[in-house]
Amino acid sequence: MLKIKKLLYLLPILLMFPLTALSNGQFPDVTPDDWYYATVTEMTANGYLNGYPDGSFQPDTAITAAEYVSVIARVCGMEKSATQNSHWAGGLLQTALNSGWYDWDEIPPTAETYDQPIARQLAVKVIMKAFAPDARGDYNTESAKIADFGTLNGRYYEPVLAAYAKGIATGDENGNFNPNVPLTRAEACALITRAMNQLSYSAQPYEEPQKPTPVTIATEKGVSKNGHLQVNGTQLCNERGEAIVLRGMSSHGIQWFPQFLTEDCIKATADSGANLFRIAMYTDENGYIANPSVKNTLINAADTAISLDMYVIIDWHILHDGNPNTYKEQAKAFFAEMAERYRGNPAVLYEICNEPNGGVTWEGDVKPYAEELIEVIRAIDDKAVILVGSPTWSQDLHKVAKSPIAADNLLYTCHFYAGTHTDWLRGRIADALNQNIPVFISEWGTSDASGSGGVYLEESEKWMEFLNANRISWANWSYCDKNESSAAVQSGANCSDGLSPDELTESGKFVFSHFND
């Protein structure tokens, strides 16, 4: 255990801008007469403490949620997680959230409250969850010690009473806990110190982690420049191992909108910067099962996209037939035929079940189906990238993470619609990435989940920022002129000479503008 001086143990307060570490372990606003001087000096020498760019420590400044949680996360030796925001503390706070130190609504992972002061009651909860999650205090005994107990939010009774029982939290001279009052940086150090002392918690000296080797990013988009794709960890890469992001459009049901699968129409997306085209072949709703001839439409579209140097997703578009096993034998025959036709072709990706839904489970239905389909494709083409959906319209990545498929070159699809799916789904994707589950957004819309009901550009922009930050590939729904807000093309548009902005809907303009992110 590190030597603890007096009652306080000052730990690193890391800020959102470049930090200044003082070689002599001193700050101009920390003097030998200050009660925290000894620990500040020692912790600076041990690499725990940095200050503001002007060299100050600012002990009386309110500590922010990001600063406070980051301190404790480093004490506990936590590593950064993938996050849905770009805040300096986002990685550590995502790990803390995943570990149950606080709830989503208390410090949202969207980061809007990261730089706000943290209240005492929440600060106590975080430290108790981190250091002693099973500690409890007797309600009658401990609440009697808190003069202003009536102002304490009920959700904090358990951690605050436990902290009083352990001698970690104490009241002021009037016996008040002041649950909603912010902590200063010096007070936060006192709280951390008491917790470590009372709970005999030891911490190792802190060293800033080495920055990972920068990921090499592919600079060219087309198949001719990138070749066979591969999945390395959670990253889709080209044949040289360089990270690549595919961006493009998904067709609507090809039995309904074949006119958008012509060479001119597909080329219009490529000319705007897309390097991916997804072909949605419905199984039900007068799709392949009732009307096998739509397969020819799919093949013609795939061949066209390939000729345009684009990657193409062949999508077995289950929807109303929510269980992929309903037409499993037909799926096996279809993908065997497609794998044979496109054997060795680096442009083709196979999406084997669009959106499982309707009470199906990952372990009982989707995973066994996927394993059979993967075996069929791999027997013919061992290099092809395969996309696998999950229950609840391809959103149950948390269930996939508990039992992933043992196979290479797989990505798990996630579908979202900006008007319906927001921070919680981004958080689920981040959790999946942290558990080494590679993700591909094979369908998303700017609308709500109905495909209509408005165009949510602000939320869509948040999604674009998240996907860009995590280098996640995507296909937008949908490339057609259907009378719904998710459609990209205006009714009556002519693709023969490309698509002008005036021929795109509000959604289409937004999506096309992001092909070159």
TrEMBL record:
Secretion signal span: 1-21
EC number: 3.2.1.4
Gene3D superfamilies noted in UniProt: Glycosidases
Catalyzed reactions per annotation: Endohydrolysis of (1->4)-beta-D-glucosidic linkages in cellulose, lichenin and cereal beta-D-glucans
Occurrences of domain SLH (ranges): 23-86, 143-206
The family this protein is said to belong to: Belongs to the glycosyl hydrolase 5 (cellulase A) family.
Listed name of the protein: cellulase
